[in-house]
Amino acid sequence: MSLTVPPSPPGRRPGPAGGEVERLAALIARVNASLDVHEVLDQAIAVCAELTGCEGALVYLWDEEQQRLVVRGAIDGYKQWIGVFGLELGEGLTGWTAHTRRPGLIRENPRADPRYRYVPELNDEQFQSVVTVPVVGRADQLLGVLTLHTRAPREFSAEDVTLLRAIAGLVAGAVENAQLHERALRSGEVFRRLAELSRGMTSAARPQATLQRLALTALDLLDAALVVVLRLDGERGQLGVETWAARGDEAVRPEALAAEPPWWRLLGAGACSVHLSVGDPLLEPAVLDPPAQSLHAAPLVYEGRPTGLLCCYDLEPRALARDNLELLATIANHAAIAVEEDRRQAQVAQRSRVRELMDALRAGDRGAAATRDLAHELGLHPDRPLVVVVAEAALPGGMERAFARLAGELAAAFPGTVADGRPRTLSAVVPVRSAGWDDRLERVLAAATASAEGVVAGYSEASGGPPELAAAYRQARVAASVARAAGAQGRVRGYARLGAQRHVWTISQAGDPDPLERALAPLVGDGPGRGGDLFRTLETYLDCHGNAREAAAALFIHRNTLRQRLRRISALVGMDVRDPNRWFDLSLAVRLIRFRAVAEGTAPTPPTPTTPVPGTDRSGVTLR
Fold it and tell me: Are residue 29 and residue 178 in the same domain, yes or no?
């Protein structure tokens, strides 16, 4: 069982006989005339069988993606194995020839040769002699193997091997020409499909329709069984099914997937092929029977960050070649743009609906129906408590970043928050789910307003759902106005914690000023020597509960200056403001003036005490 090619038998001339020349000429003509590799392989197999007298003849071609030799041509009786049967590199005598690039000869008893692999499906038990010849391309790359069998022991001569080498060379040329032609046709088809997709992406087509076309394109061009586009939700650590396409009855599981390590590895890699086994978490989205054995995936990357995955499931073990991996990456890039555009459009639609909701809340009872419908669209659960937050800036403009930061912090602390920012106000509806939400919300608002000059915030009581949101919005506006009146004494106010100030605010919005308010009006005017100093002096004096030392320190003036101002104030208002019996009435009048001024947008500059004052509530109003 040596591999040495025997010499020609005595009396036989080297080289092909006349019939051989005619058959080779016919094969050459077919190779030159056809770009269909299947036709050429059929002709080559027929020539091999006729000229060598072999009863079994197969042509294996190397499949770069499957990384194995696959039957692509066969004599009658074996055609059912075309595209079905294959061998690994080095497996059997055929695999040995592919690995060594050398012809293989077994004259008899093939099972005794360690290189031989017995395959019952191919009726190998009836064959005694085997010859294999490598099919090698112009650049010395492996293209395949010619394999022939005989039932009776056979001495393959040097002329036989030379003939088979010649046929293998013709097959190599045909395969290379066909592959070049196929690549050219495929490149044209790929270019055409991608051009259509690009035109669709620059037109008014919806992103979802574009994503569906991308999935169908990947399904066709990559010959996959199922294609799934997954969108990454980084905040929740999940992957959701965006769209999918399949060849048959295959489907996907719509549930969101936890982005476990295998998924993160794909998100952080380039286009690649992965072998799948039973129970692999990467199989979770695909409903396939039989299950997929390969996954070809490419991350969707937008502005340097992964936004999802393009997944192509294959029922066969397969690894995409470089050109197909590049195509997969290109389709994934198009999908990333479509996913981002879909996200952007969803954000625009979301902002529009949130704005409509806030307008409906401002409309009160007139917007009740719209409030209910919009709250449902925005995912605000009707049975969960909701709190309205209103933040206001002293002046319009320049607050976009501050309001955006506040909206982000609210959403992070209270998932499901929806917010609408405008030049001077930020309104938000905040879902609350646990006890102690008010302290948590106040901490978030206090931290945000502390870094934003001139911004105050108010929040409502917890409402019973969307039907009560209009009332909650009014509460938040009242709380924000009280916070504005309180100034540096407290930038954040909760409606439930306003105490008596809720009633003072209600009084300030209804009815005319009483005589004591009118008496204090000169203190707020712009007359000589005033400019609001006297009003601030009285307000601070009352907030300090008549403590001259604390009031002077809060105003950064000497106590003698404070006494002089108090005498001047008493003369202007016609009463001794240092009389403790008048402090309650004066405190209410000062608070009413400030609340009315806040509502009219003409509030005097509020006091700025350096330390909390005992005997006052959180807004600084003395309550006795």
Answer: yes
- Domain ranges, residue 544: 504-600
For residues 443-467, average pLDDT: 85
User: How do residues 290-301 score in pLDDT, each as one tens digit?
Assistant: 889 999 999 999
What does pTM read for this prediction?
0.58
533 shares a domain with 470? no
Predicted confidence (pLDDT) per residue in 122-161, tens digit: 776 777 888 899 999 888 889 999 988 888 887 777 888 8
CA-only gyration radius of the chain, Å: 43
CATH number of the domain that 404 lies in? Answer: 3.30.70.270
Is the domain of 461 the same as that of 378?
A: yes
> Which range has highest mean pLDDT (155-169, 349-363, 531-545)?
349-363
d(CA 263, CA 300): 13
Tokens of 493: 């106010």
Q: Please name the residues in contact with 366: beta carbons below 8 A apart, sequence gap of 6 or more.
A: none
The 8-class DSSP code of residue 153 comes to -
Q: Among residues 477, 480, 428, which one has the least CA distance to residue 454?
A: 480
What's the whole-number mean pLDDT along residues 566-583?
A: 88
Do 421 and 481 fall into the same domain?
Answer: yes
> 535 and 483 in one domain?
no
Compute the C-alpha angle 438/441/444, nearest 5°: 150
User: Residue 579 has what pLDDT?
Assistant: 87
275-321: pLDDT as tens digits: 999 889 999 998 888 889 999 999 999 988 999 999 999 998 888 88
Residue 595 belongs to a domain with what CATH number?
Answer: 1.10.10.2840
How does DSSP assign 180-240, residue by residue?
HHHHHHHHHHHHHHHHHHHHHHHTT--HHHHHHHHHHHHHHHTT-SEEEEEEEETTTTEEE
Do the domain assignments include residue 533?
A: yes
169 and 152 fall within a common domain: yes
Q: Are residues 266 and 157 in the same domain?
A: no
Is 622 in a helix, a strand, or coil?
A: strand
Q: Point out the domain boundary residue: 182, 216, 232.
A: 182
Identify the sign of the CA torsion 401, 403, 409, 411.
negative
User: Under a CB-based contact definition with an 8 Å cutoff, are residues 490 and 611 in contact?
Assistant: no
Whether residues 563 and 447 fall in one domain: no
Is residue 519 pLDDT above 70, yes or no? yes
